[in-house]
Every structure is written in C-alpha cells, then in structure tokens.
Design a protein that fits this description.
Layout: H1 3-37, E1 38-45, E2 48-55, H2 61-73, E3 79-81, H3 87-116, H4 122-164, E4 170-172, H5 173-190, H6 193-202, H7 208-213, H8 215-229, H9 235-274
Parallel strand pairs: 3-4
Antiparallel strand pairs: 1-2
Length: about 280
C-alpha cells in the first residue's frame, strides 16, 4: 500500500477519534458543571416534597456527596481539616470529576465500542457487546462495595491504631479524598476480572483450561495488584483488595467454561445447518 493510500486512512481515523473524544468531553463537561454549580435541595409545596437543583457554587452537589461519604466512612469524632487555602477548591473539583466520570461512563463505553467495531470480527463484536452491561454493573458494584461497605471498617481499624499511638483523630481533606477515591476506583476495576476472562474465552484467544491451570499465578497477581494499588501500601489493605479479586477469578473460571461450551455448541449447530 502506497503512502498516498495510507495517509488518508490515518487522517480519517484521527478525525473520528477527535469527534468521539469531543462527544465524551462534552458529556463529561456537562456533568462536571452540574456537580460544580448546582445543589440538590428539597422543597415542600402544598404538603408535598420535591427535589430540585438550585445554583450554589459553595454547597454544590460535589460538596454534598463529599459530606455524605465523610459522615458514613469516618469514625465519630474524626476531624477533617485543610492544609492549604486551595484544598477546598481542589477537593470540590476532584469530587466533581469523579462523579462526572461515573455518570459519563456509558457514553465513554459506547463511543469506544463504536470506534473499535469496524475492526472487529463478528464473534469479537458479540463478545464486546455482551460484556458492556456486565462490565458496567460489576464496576459499579465493586465501587459501591469498596466505598460503602469495606471503607468504614478500614477507617475504624486505622483510627484504633491512631488512638493506640496517642495520635489525634484527624485527617487532611486531600488525604481523605485521594485515599477513598483511589481505593474505590481500584476496587471497581478489580471486579472486572471475570468480564475480562469471559471475553477472552468467547473470542477464542484464551481457553477456559488456561484459566484453571494458572489459578496460582492469579493469586500471586492479585496480591501484587493489592500491594501496588492499595492506599497506604500496608498488608491489611493489600489482602482486603486481593481477596475479592481471587474470588472473582474463580467465578470467572466458571463463566469462562460456560462461554466456551456455548461457543462450541454454536459451532456444531452452524456446521449442521451448513451440511
């Protein structure tokens, strides 16, 4: 293929990338602006309570969400403080972008899937299409479990060690946000393990037996993942993050077997129809 034929293809793809990135950024920006400028507020009219969004730059939706998770996660008596004058602004921006990313995720997945679609075979397209909903659901479930169920006991344990050392129960705002959100996102990502396994098996890249034979490597990989991505890099948080990955890997083996049997049955049926 000559240069005259290659460059138009490259530029056409670059243009499509630009269009899709623009769509993603527009949706992301709209959600971020909502969380930064509007506040969820209840209003009672004629004896009925309604929820409205009101303009409020300081007590916005991001601030409401941050206060919600502070009250839920941190032990009673813990003081959250700011170290620098701009910490409040940065915290508000970080929370807004985190929420915007979560709400824009369906559009992000859709645009990426449509961009990759023409380069995929039918089986790969089917695998990608069938993985979108489970992947989104598992990421959401993992993030929710990490944030709402696992994080509070972790902070109680940390608080116990602080009190045991005679330290005051206090935490900087930015440290709390970075710890909580990094932990939440990595917990959500770890829940994608079975989707990744089933997708590779459905496309025929990796067999189910491969996953079964390498479960010991998966256990070691889960511990390394927990060591690298667990906030604070301590043994307890590493294990807390590794255990769900190991359990999900075992579940992924089961679903990979099912996907493999289903793919083999489809091949047999198509072959019988042709004959």
């Amino acid at each position: 293929m000559s240069d005259e034929e290659v460059f138009p293809i490259i530029f056409r793809n670059l243009d499509e990338i630009r269009v899709r990135l623009t769509r993603i950024l527009i949706v992301f920006g709209i959600f971020a602006a909502i969380f930064l400028t509007l506040r969820i507020q209840e209003v009672t009219l004629f004896g009925h309570t309604f929820i409205f969004l009101y303009p409020n730059f300081y007590h916005n939706t991001a601030a409401q969400f941050l206060l919600l998770i502070e009250n839920h996660i941190l032990p009673a008596g813990t003081t959250v403080f700011v170290l620098k004058p701009a910490d409040g602004v940065l915290a508000d921006l970080d929370v807004s972008m985190f929420l915007a990313l979560l709400f824009a995720m369906p559009i992000i997945v859709k645009e990426i899937g449509e961009f990759l679609g023409p380069a995929l075979k039918k089986r790969e397209k089917d695998a990608l299409r069938s993985a979108i909903v489970p992947a989104t659901a598992l990421f959401t479930a993992g993030s929710a479990i990490g944030l709402w169920i696992v994080a509070p006991p972790l902070f109680i344990i940390f608080s116990g060690y602080d009190l045991g050392l005679g330290a005051a129960e206090s935490l900087s705002l930015m440290s709390f946000i970075s710890f909580t959100f990094i932990y939440t996102v990595t917990f959500g990502i770890s829940f994608e393990v079975p989707v990744f396994m089933v997708a590779l098996t459905r496309t025929g890249i990796v067999s189910a037996k491969f996953w079964e034979d390498h479960w010991r490597h998966a256990v070691i990989g889960a511990l390394i993942f927990g060591m690298i991505f667990s906030p604070g890099v301590i043994g307890f948080t590493m294990v807390v993050m590794a255990v769900p990955i190991i359990a999900l890997y075992m579940g992924g083996i089961y679903f990979a077997r099912r996907a493999e049997r289903k793919a083999e049955a489809e091949k047999v049926n198509s072959a019988s129809e042709i004959s």
